[in-house]
Design goal:
Blueprint: H1 17-20, E1 39-45, E2 48-50, E3 54-61, E4 70-76, H2 82-87, E5 92-95, E6 101-107, E7 115-123, E8 126-135, E9 144-149, E10 157-159, E11 162-170, E12 179-186, E13 202-205, E14 211-218, E15 227-234, E16 240-247, E17 252-255, E18 267-271, E19 281-287, E20 292-293, E21 297-300, E22 306-310, E23 312-313, E24 322-329, E25 336-342
Parallel strand pairs: 2-8, 10-16
Antiparallel strand pairs: 1-3, 3-6, 4-5, 4-7, 7-8, 9-11, 11-14, 12-13, 12-15, 15-16, 17-18, 18-22, 19-21, 19-24, 20-23, 24-25
Length: 345
């Protein structure tokens, strides 16, 4: 089978559709499948939508669907458009029994520029295609104003195995049909190999409202260390971002940004995990590396599961130096935990 090149912000027009769809999709059905309805056509209304807008796609069959209905795969050709796949329930729709068509809502990503996205409906080697055009929004009229998570404290600490609610805010009320805001998890604020949380590809702000919600989940497995991840929200414009501290279930300490000599942005964090601390927690910090200093202690309130702390690395500390930091939980059986990291620049 041919392979498609995937570009998030680049488009394929209708003229390229025949080249983008693998040749196997256009093959004629076998004689054994003659009595089974096939895909006849697909269309989208409206065919031009604003970024974040909703459209209706219809898939039509050559004959009524048999008992139990008929499944049809739907894909966005040439695009890793997670919004489209999510809005179609994983890229699969079902024509109800006795019906010749099914209509369903779709959403696409908010591309930076006007973008034509080819859509294909296919089943058993027979396919039909159509285009939908996504037009960018004027940032002066509509854009993402804010994104946040509903967690106490500036660190936004989320414990593994839990879910929290996040929200996005628009600069103006959402349009008819609601406005979908693109969501992504990145590690802009933290280490590239830091833990990631799970979020949906978009959040829908209801029509007439400026705020929509989504769920952020920090999975309990696989087991990962402590780290910072960022929730990004955008409508094709520069993203708004919220940093979240993702902590494991156990009490831990870690370095959550690259350590650089002389830099003031070096950062570590303590996570209390799922241990109960109704009166808060006092953590004593110790650096075991000359030229590297940390605060003597940090206090974590009862309603927070972790906090950041600053790490100062003197200019005289050579690149490649191994840094060792300990965190002692005062008056707790959790005791002391230790982490190591290397100065990288």
């Amino acid at each position: 089978m041919s392979h498609l090149t995937i570009h998030r912000r680049a488009g394929l027009g209708a003229a390229a559709l025949a080249l983008a769809v693998p040749a196997a999709l256009a093959a004629a059905p076998s004689a054994a499948a003659d009595t089974t309805p096939q895909v006849a056509s697909t269309s989208v209304s409206p065919a031009v939508i604003p970024a974040g807008g909703q459209a209706l796609q219809t898939v039509r069959l050559t004959a009524p669907a048999p008992a139990g209905g008929l499944g049809v795969e739907v894909i966005s050709v040439g695009f890793a458009d997670g919004n489209y796949q999510h809005s179609t329930g994983g890229g699969f729709v079902r024509v109800p029994e006795g019906r010749t068509s099914v209509t369903f809502p779709i959403r696409l990503e908010a591309y930076e520029d006007e973008t034509v996205v080819p859509l294909v409906a296919r089943r058993h080697g027979v396919s039909a295609g159509t285009d939908v055009t996504v037009q960018p929004l004027d940032w002066r009229e509509q854009t993402v104003k804010d994104v946040e998570v509903d967690v106490p404290g500036d660190s936004n600490a989320v414990v593994a195995g839990t879910k929290v609610t996040g929200s996005v805010e628009l600069a103006a009320p959402a349009a008819v049909g609601g406005t979908s805001v693109d969501l992504r998890m990145t590690n802009v604020s933290g280490l590239p190999d830091g833990p990631h949380a799970k979020i949906p590809p978009y959040a829908v702000v209801p029509a007439g409202s400026t705020r929509g919600t989504f769920t952020l989940e920090h999975p309990g497995v696989p087991v990962q260390g402590i780290g910072i991840a960022d929730v990004e929200a955008d409508l094709g414009h520069p993203a708004m971002r919220e940093a979240v501290l993702l902590v494991p279930k156990q009490y831990t300490v870690g370095v959550v940004r690259e350590l650089r000599a002389g830099a003031g942005r070096n950062l570590g964090a303590v996570g209390l995990g799922d241990r109960w601390h109704p009166f808060g927690a006092v953590i004593e910090l110790t650096s075991h590396t000359p030229g590297v200093t940390v605060p003597e202690k940090i206090e974590i309130p009862a309603d927070e599961a972790g906090r950041h702390f600053r790490i100062d690395v003197a200019e005289s500390v050579p690149v490649g130096t191994k840094v060792r930091i300990s965190a002692k939980w005062v008056l707790s059986t959790a005791g002391t935990v230790t982490t190591e990291a290397v100065v990288t620049g």
